[in-house]
């Protein structure tokens, strides 16, 4: 076979007169090119590291300062106020240097010190400016004079052409709120959910906590905030994600869908080739720090720390806690297809494989008819089941021999790719096509995704794609950033031939992908089957409903002078009450990435103002004017809560950290224990769109994504992800559990639709009749399957 000959780098024969050594010129050439590429990569990383390290200054500014100091030597003006002379007199080995040499060296040293001082001054000035958050509390479309001045100063101190990590050292630390403020906001958030007696008891617990141990716990948190870059994020990752021993499939991992209306090609191998190549391009820019940092208002920078672990990252199971393993410079991919694992090199001759070359490799895997080895088919179910059995099996059966080599290949891969064998995707002609697509991405068959990888890329036979992402290393906007880049690159830069193949010449001389080898004993196969059955029970219980709301979108909501997010959140509160006839604790995720190493904070959306609005909507005697006034008041309250969460004045992360400190100190707080045990029966999140603005969706309205979603958080509650797409579309991803007699995702989706239309009708009373006629009657209490 040609591939076998190419795999041999050299041959030698031992003869009486010596050794006859024959080297393969092709292999030597590849080794040389790989070395050149590696050194080039290191040089670019070093250069960009220097640029980010001295930002907002530049290396050329050092030369300017040095020239200015050197010039002072000749015009007999001393801007250093005698410091250059002092340095000159204290130089070591000055007896071996001429007077001129000492003067020049002293000027250079002083200039360097002055330059470094100016860099730190600029950074701390920018950090002080970024600590101001008054701008975020101003009304949309209105900007005060002080904010305009502040924005101009931020732009002035931000420099030009920043790299991805240029602003990291200038981002402020997440502030620790005062205990009094947090307790006050907490009591305010639970007031609409408790009766008078329950609220009085909660007040007593809160006051006892505040008077007894709160001050002591707060001191430790303040100390940590001074020492660590973020007082929340490391504990949040460890205790919320890594210490969880339940399955991460459905319970933690989330998914992101492909383009909604467009499929660039229906050839599975070709689509996977373009997408994987686009991911490699993204990774190269990420490793070099060449992506532009995200900035609010186009000026205020966001933290980029989470992006560092996007590739070459795996969650490693442990008995008590997992760890996140991040490697560098991984050059291979592991592909799963019909129960077989394949190792695929992503580089040849020191460069990425081209899309056409990747298509060839993926097609070879699709054409492979070999059978899975014993235990190989459902091996990935170990990552879908409980963490402790997986950790023990990993130690016992995968710590040596071929099993260790193959597992290392998976865990060290750039990412994991599944070539699925069942078509998925949104099809308006098929009922529940979005539901099936979401469930496939969320859990699949429970053994065809490696749920521990930072993300699994999923390719379907009809050309559709999707992503299943592990949650501990980053939040959804980070994966969404990468996915937007990949889809735009795939469709608008790489493209396809008329036949649907990747562009470029076909290289059939590449070594074939190789099968990973396994020796899995029957005892391990039994553990795999147990994990599979456990995961399948979870997957089968997921009741999912996805739908597209296109009656109106962000464009209409903004004309009503209301925040689109507040509008949707109040619609969710109205839908929740109509569905359950009670109000519940509601979780909405907000980002805190304006701070160093920031992740998320909770917005408690079920406020007293929201409750008053919902009750008015259900009160036949309330007028439209009364309902509209209550809606605006509730929307303003929600916006204020959201802004407080974004600026470090949230409730739940602070209480979570206080609880952890109490556990470390061995003290018991009934108040904190009560707070941390409250169930979130409605968990919501908005997936951001157009973070990069690479595609003009007004010009290309069909090139929009459907967003993504997650599994239900509570056994008897709902998980709702929504995506505001352009001006006229909102997509909803709703999950619950079939095992709960109180929930029905389809029913809840219809409640959301009616709530959205009912709120819109407040602004157009004359359309009330049309709105009611347009609504489809609810199917009460009937599960959809």
UniProtKB/TrEMBL annotation:
It is found in: Mitochondrion outer membrane. GO terms for molecular function: carnitine O-palmitoyltransferase activity. It is a multi-pass membrane protein. The keyword Metal-binding does not apply. Its EC number is 2.3.1.21. Keywords: Acyltransferase, Fatty acid metabolism, Lipid metabolism, Membrane, Mitochondrion, Mitochondrion outer membrane, Transferase, Transmembrane, Transmembrane helix, Transport. It comes from the Eukaryota. The keyword Acyltransferase applies. SUPFAM superfamilies: CoA-dependent acyltransferases. GO terms for biological process: carnitine metabolic process; fatty acid metabolic process; long-chain fatty acid transport. It is an enzyme of class 2 (transferase). One of its GO terms (cellular component) is mitochondrial outer membrane. Residues 174-754 form the Choline/carnitine acyltransferase domain. It holds the Pfam family CPT_N. Pathway: Lipid metabolism; fatty acid beta-oxidation. Belongs to the carnitine/choline acetyltransferase family. This is Carnitine O-palmitoyltransferase 1, muscle isoform. It comes from Stegastes partitus (bicolor damselfish). The gene is cpt1b.
């Amino acid at each position: 076979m040609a591939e076998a000959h190419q795999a041999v780098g050299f041959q030698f024969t031992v003869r009486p007169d010596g050794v006859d050594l024959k080297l393969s010129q092709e292999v030597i050439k590849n080794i040389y090119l790989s070395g050149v590429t590696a050194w080039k990569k290191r040089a670019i990383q070093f250069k960009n590291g220097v640029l980010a390290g001295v930002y907002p200054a530049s290396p050329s500014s050092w030369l300017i300062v040095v020239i200015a100091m050197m010039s002072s030597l000749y015009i007999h003006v001393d801007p250093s106020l005698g410091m250059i002379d002092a340095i000159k007199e204290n130089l070591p080995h000055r007896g071996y240097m001429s007077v001129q040499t000492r003067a020049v060296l002293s000027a250079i040293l002083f200039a360097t010190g002055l330059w470094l001082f100016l860099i730190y001054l600029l950074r701390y000035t920018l950090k002080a400016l970024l600590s101001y958050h008054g701008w975020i509390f101003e009304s949309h479309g209105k900007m005060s004079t002080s904010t305009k001045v502040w924005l101009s100063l931020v732009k002035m101190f931000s420099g030009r052409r920043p790299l991805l990590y240029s602003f990291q050292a200038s981002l402020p630390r997440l502030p620790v709120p005062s205990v009094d403020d947090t307790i006050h906001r907490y009591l305010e958030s639970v007031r609409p959910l408790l009766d008078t007696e329950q609220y009085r008891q909660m007040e007593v617990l809160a006051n006892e906590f505040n008077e007894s141990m709160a001050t002591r716990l707060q001191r430790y948190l303040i100390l940590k905030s001074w020492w660590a870059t973020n007082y929340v994020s490391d504990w949040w990752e460890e205790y919320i994600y890594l210490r969880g021993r339940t399955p991460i499939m459905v319970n933690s991992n989330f998914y992101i869908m492909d383009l909604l209306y467009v499929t660039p090609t229906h050839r599975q191998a070709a689509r996977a080739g373009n997408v994987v190549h686009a991911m490699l391009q993204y990774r190269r820019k990420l490793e070099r720090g060449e992506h532009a940092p995200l900035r609010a208002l186009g000026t205020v920078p966001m933290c980029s720390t989470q992006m560092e672990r996007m590739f070459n990252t795996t969650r490693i199971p442990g008995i008590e806690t997992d760890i996140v393993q991040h490697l560098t410079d991984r050059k291979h991919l592991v592909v799963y297809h019909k129960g077989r694992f394949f190792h695929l090199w992503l580089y040849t001759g020191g460069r990425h494989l081209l899309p056409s070359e990747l298509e060839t490799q993926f097609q070879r895997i699709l054409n492979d008819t070999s059978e899975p080895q014993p235990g190989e088919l459902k091996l990935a179910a170990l990552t879908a089941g409980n963490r402790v059995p997986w950790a023990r099996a990993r130690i016992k059966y995968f710590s040596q021999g071929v099993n260790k080599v193959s597992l290392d290949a998976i865990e060290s891969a750039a990412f994991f790719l599944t070539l699925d064998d069942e078509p998925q995707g949104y099809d308006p002609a098929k009922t529940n096509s979005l539901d099936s697509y979401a469930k496939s991405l969320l859990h699949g068959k429970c053994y065809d995704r490696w749920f521990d990888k930072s993300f699994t890329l999923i390719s379907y036979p009809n050309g559709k794609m999707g992503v299943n992402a592990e949650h501990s290393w980053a939040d959804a906007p980070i994966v969404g950033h990468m996915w937007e880049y990949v889809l735009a690159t795939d469709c608008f830069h790489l493209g396809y031939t008329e036949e649907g193949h990747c562009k470029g010449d076909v290289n059939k001389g590449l070594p074939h992908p190789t099968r990973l080898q396994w020796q899995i004993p029957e005892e391990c196969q039994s553990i795999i089957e147990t994990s599979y059955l456990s995961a399948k029970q979870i997957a089968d219980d997921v009741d999912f409903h996805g739908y597209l709301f296109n009656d109106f979108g962000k464009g209409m909501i903004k004309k009503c002078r209301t925040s689109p997010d507040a509008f949707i959140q109040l619609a969710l509160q109205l839908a929740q009450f109509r569905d359950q006839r009670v109000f519940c604790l509601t979780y909405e995720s907000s980002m805190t990435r304006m701070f160093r190493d920031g992740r998320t904070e909770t917005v408690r959306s079920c406020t007293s103002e929201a409750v008053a609005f919902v009750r008015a909507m259900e009160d036949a005697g309330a007028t439209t004017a009364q309902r509209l006034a209550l809606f605006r008041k509730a929307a303003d309250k929600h916006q204020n809560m959201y802004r407080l969460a974004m600026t470090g004045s949230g409730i739940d992360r602070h209480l979570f950290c206080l609880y952890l400190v109490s556990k470390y100190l061995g003290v018991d707080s009934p108040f904190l224990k009560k707070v941390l045990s409250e169930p979130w029966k409605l968990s919501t999140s908005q997936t951001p769109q157009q973070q990069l603005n690479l595609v003009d969706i007004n010009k290309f309205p069909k090139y929009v994504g459907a967003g993504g979603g997650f599994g239900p958080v509570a056994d008897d509650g709902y998980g709702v992800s929504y995506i505001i797409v352009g001006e006229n579309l909102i997509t909803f991803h709703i999950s619950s559990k079939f095992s709960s007699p109180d929930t029905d995702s389809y029913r809840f989706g219809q409640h959301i639709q009616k709530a959205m239309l009912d709120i819109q009708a407040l602004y157009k009373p004359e359309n009330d009749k049309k709105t009611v006629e347009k609504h489809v009657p609810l199917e009460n209490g009937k599960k959809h399957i």
